[in-house]
UniProtKB/TrEMBL annotation:
<feature type="domain" description="RecF/RecN/SMC N-terminal">
    <location>
        <begin position="2"/>
        <end position="507"/>
    </location>
</feature>
<dbReference type="InterPro" id="IPR003395">
    <property type="entry name" value="RecF/RecN/SMC_N"/>
</dbReference>
<comment type="similarity">
    <text>Belongs to the RecN family.</text>
</comment>
<keyword id="KW-0175">Coiled coil</keyword>
<dbReference type="Pfam" id="PF02463">
    <property type="entry name" value="SMC_N"/>
</dbReference>
<feature type="coiled-coil region">
    <location>
        <begin position="148"/>
        <end position="175"/>
    </location>
</feature>
<keyword id="KW-0067">ATP-binding</keyword>
<keyword id="KW-0234">DNA repair</keyword>
<keyword id="KW-0227">DNA damage</keyword>
<dbReference type="InterPro" id="IPR004604">
    <property type="entry name" value="DNA_recomb/repair_RecN"/>
</dbReference>
<keyword id="KW-0547">Nucleotide-binding</keyword>
<protein>
    <recommendedName>
        <fullName>DNA repair protein RecN</fullName>
    </recommendedName>
</protein>
<dbReference type="InterPro" id="IPR027417">
    <property type="entry name" value="P-loop_NTPase"/>
</dbReference>
<comment type="function">
    <text>May be involved in recombinational repair of damaged DNA.</text>
</comment>
Length: 550
């Protein structure tokens, strides 16, 4: 529950500090006195966005601080999850700086607005006239029926599963798209791969083939040169080898006479050995040289195949062709993996579909059982609020679609009088009827929810007299288990409160300010009398006010 509220430099409020008690509190005041300002300040504490128009004095910051007693509301886990210091008396502070920037704090720890909004869901529900119209919204209607059905755990499990189901569906669509694109390319990729595999390419092969081609293509020229070299080297009388050997013998005879002759002898000996070795290799080359047109043709064909493949794939080496071959093999392998992944995801989606359907059925059955409970309670409360012939038909139909809270669709059909047809709430219910229905809904939900504080902002629109008295009694009954505030213009409701606050404007010099005051017993009698008769209070109005209070 909220225990106190302080406001500084906000709208028409220069400075305000007020304490609140548990039970049923009333807030009254003339139209325009500043009741909406109080609600606006509370809205900022609960995480509503702010702007510079909130500042009374544009040169100073606005500070709004609210104290909450949360000792009985099991919120420690929320504080732990958000890394916040837990205190039984929790303080929420909002600051709006002249620069336009806004800051928020929970127990002096800075937080963002989302964290503040998340916490506010456990603290205060401000019911406005706009919320009354939201009663026609399907989402709100489901929240009402689900509170009575006590299916929150099933819905939470359903939502977790639904998120996973949607992720699987999204991933499956991506894989199917990728598969469709791959299938289009599969035939061509397979052709390219088969062409490369058939070529039986090897790293370094092109260079070897080109060398062999040059040999075979010039075999006669090569043989002629080799044979001529052999003849010049090995001619018995004038061959180079024979001449070198004679020089070698001559130098060996004088090698011992001087070091330089020995050196020359060693060098000529090396030349003889080298030329002899060259002669042997030339002999081997000559023996291997064969004019083989068929082999030349085969090598030419293989080189042409390699050149054609390089041109097709826009590369210049066999190694690059082999890399393309490997990539094509991987691509076709991935296509096989895609089929496996698609099969796995498809099975997962089928399994989750069955689980979602099972959960949705449990939710549907719980909601169906809650319908007569809600309908009977609404009819019972509304009968005391001057609607004795009201009837409800709450239709919950199972659909094929997976919605965020199940597979159901809901319709609240309403008839206020005997002999009238059922119709949708938003089409057939008047403003006064909607206000009473909403109060009845809140009274019912108070039995099932654990909301600490509920603020009714002029829920009495369109009612008066005995109906207003009964509305006040219902709110007072609700205040036995939760803190209730009612902003009202009706004296019948105002008289039911445990505490009564008045919002009024005052003028200080040239400045107009809004203030909030807790009324004592005499001031409260006078305020209710003024609500009954206006500014001029008659004795009968005072007596009526006392009667209402008693």
């Amino acid at each position: 529950m909220i225990t106190s509220l302080s406001i500084k430099n906000y709208a028409l409020i220069e400075k305000l500090a007020i304490d609140f008690s548990k039970g049923f509190s009333i807030i009254t005041g003339e139209t325009g006195a500043g009741k909406s300002i109080i609600l606006g300040a509370m809205g900022l504490v609960l995480g509503r966005r702010a702007d510079l128009t909130s500042l009374k004095n544009k040169e100073e910051k606005c500070v709004i601080e609210a104290y909450f007693d949360i000792s009985k509301y099991n919120l420690k886990s929320f504080f732990e999850a958000n890394d916040l210091d837990y205190e039984d008396e929790t303080i929420i502070r909002r600051e709006i700086l002249p620069s336009g920037k806004s800051r928020a704090f929970i127990n002096d720890s800075p937080v963002n607005l989302q964290e503040l909004q998340d916490l506010s869901l456990f603290l205060i529900d401000i019911h406005s006239q706009q919320q009354t119209q939201e009663l026609s919204n399907e989402g709100v209607q489901f929240k009402i029926i689900d509170a009575i059905a006590n299916d929150q755990q099933e819905i939470a499990n359903y939502q977790t599963l639904l998120k996973s189901y949607k992720e699987d569906k999204s991933n499956l669509n991506l894989l199917l798209k990728k598969q469709a694109e791959s299938i289009k390319e599969q035939e061509y990729n397979t052709f390219l791969l088969n062409e490369l595999v058939a070529a039986q390419l090897k790293s370094g092969e092109q260079e070897q083939l080109e060398a062999d081609f040059e040999k075979l293509n010039n075999v006669e020229t090569i043989k002629e040169a080799v044979d001529k070299s052999l003849a010049l080297a090995n001619e018995e009388q004038i061959g180079a080898l024979s001449t070198l050997k004679e020089i070698k013998i001559a130098l060996q005879k004088i090698a011992s006479f001087a070091p330089e002759y020995a050196s020359l002898s060693e060098r000529i000996t090396s030349l003889v050995i080298e030329l002899d070795d060259i002669s042997d290799e030339l002999t081997n080359c000559s023996e291997k040289l064969i004019n083989d047109p068929e082999q030349l043709d085969l090598i030419s064909q293989k080189l042409q195949l390699i050149f054609n493949l390089q041109k097709k794939h826009q590369v210049t080496t066999v190694d690059e062709l082999l890399a393309i071959q490997t990539n094509l093999e991987n691509t076709l392998f991935e296509l096989g993996n895609l089929e496996s992944d698609i099969a796995t995801l498809t099975q997962s989606i089928q399994d989750k579909t069955s689980q979602l359907d099972a959960l949705a059925l449990v939710i549907h059955e719980k909601r169906t059982k809650a319908v007569p409970v809600l309908s009977d309670k609404l009819i019972s409360i509304l009968a005391t609020l001057g609607m004795p012939n009201v009837r409800f038909t709450i239709e919950i139909k199972a659909a094929d679609n997976y919605y965020q809270n199940g597979k159901d669709e809901i319709q609240f059909l309403f008839s206020a009088n005997k002999g009238t047809d059922f119709g949708l709430l938003k089409k057939v219910a008047s403003g006064g009827e909607m206000s009473r229905i909403m109060l009845a809904v809140k009274a019912i939900l108070a039995q099932y929810s654990k909301l600490p504080t509920l603020i009714f902002d002029e829920i009495d629109t369109g009612v008066s007299g005995e109906i207003a008295i009964r509305m006040g009694e219902i709110m007072k009954e609700m205040s036995q288990t939760m803190q209730i505030f009612a902003i009202t213009h009706l004296p019948q409701i105002a008289a039911k409160g445990n505490a009564h606050f008045k919002v009024f404007k005052s003028t200080v010099g040239e400045d107009t300010q809004s203030e909030l005051q807790l009324l004592n017993e005499e001031e409260r009698v006078l305020e209710i009398a003024q609500m009954l008769s206006g500014a001029v209070v008659s004795d009968s109005a005072l007596n009526h006010a006392k009667s209402l209070l008693n």
